[in-house]
Amino acid sequence: MIVAGFGFRAAATAASLADALARAAQGRLVDRFAAAADRAAALAAALGVAVEEVDAAALAAQETATRSAAALAARGTGSLAEAAALAAAGPGARLLGPRALSADRLAACALACCEPSLAPESEVER
């Protein structure tokens, strides 16, 4: 199972979100989508998919591969996209790579998996 986690600014468009997803997925099929609880509805509406809401405590509990000072200050995690993907994928989840940013830098997406057989050799350790 592969989960796509998102972090994005209020100004992000559906195109921003789709671009971040395409850059992160690199052709992989995504099984689930996740975002911070207060942003899940906006993501669902923009992409037309069901989105798992991840609460603030679950986001802050994740060890991310990248660290944004702004995300850390605002959300208590280094990367909202990475934290959402990891939290939604469950215990033992691993990132498939660092977050990918949309060309307009308004959205970020990261993929995580919970099945070791799906993780490539270059996976990012938590």
Automatic annotation (TrEMBL):
Keywords: Hydrolase. Residues 2-112 form the CobE/GbiG C-terminal domain. The keyword Hydrolase applies. One of its GO terms (biological process) is cobalamin biosynthetic process. InterPro entries: CobE/GbiG_C, CobE/GbiG_C_sf. Pfam families: CbiG_C. Gene3D superfamilies: CobE/GbiG C-terminal domain. One of its GO terms (molecular function) is hydrolase activity. This is Cobalt-precorrin 5A hydrolase.
